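For the sake of transparency, this paper describes our internal protein records without simplification. Because each token names a local backbone shape, the row as a whole describes the fold. One such record is reproduced below, unchanged from the form in which we store it:
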Amino acid sequence: MFQNIVGESPVVLSAVTVAEIGHGIYRANTPEICHRRRAFLDDLKATVPIYPLTESTAEIIARIGGEQAAHGINLPLADLMIGACQMSALPAAAN
């Protein structure tokens, strides 16, 4: 169902994204919506690799967040975490 490559970049999920989507499952106001969201997340997890937050991704978060903050740009932590997981899927030279 999901394509694993977009252009030159692999498609991966951050564990944070899994938590965000999962949160929506438990907020559903009908059993049908809950079931549909659960099916979507299960299909997504079965198809797209999930990247955890690691020491390496923490360093990417710190570097990008700190560099941007030094320029007056404050990025939301969750967005930094998701982006760092994607960056960790790229070849080392791209980071």
